[in-house]
Amino acid sequence: MKRLFGCGLLLALMMVVSAAMSKPAEARMQYFQQFKKQYDKVDAEATKCGICHGGDKGANKKQLSDYGKLLGEELGAKNVKGDDKLEKALKAIEDKGDVEGKKYGDLLKDGKLPPAFEE
Prior knowledge:
- Helices cover 47% and strands 6% of the residues.
- It contains 5 helices and 2 strands, in the order ααββααα.
- The relative contact order is 0.14.
């Protein structure tokens, strides 16, 4: 009986430690919100995080499109907050990229999204 109680206590302790050490998901909804605000002609709702990430609606956060890579480089840090910083970074990459002879900024002004992640 003592052995069973000891195993149960050990298991409970391991669960508590595991839960305390787990890293929370880092959704960066502020990026998406700023993108929608800045490029209101673009229908971004269908793609959501897929603007920068691979997978269905950006489900694979380890895959970045060329646009997403440029945005990450421009931001210079993870999980940047502040509309002004995000606005500047989005603006800075408008003159980059080459999609059918157009820069990202031209595509976005035409209401089109940058190309999705490609393997």
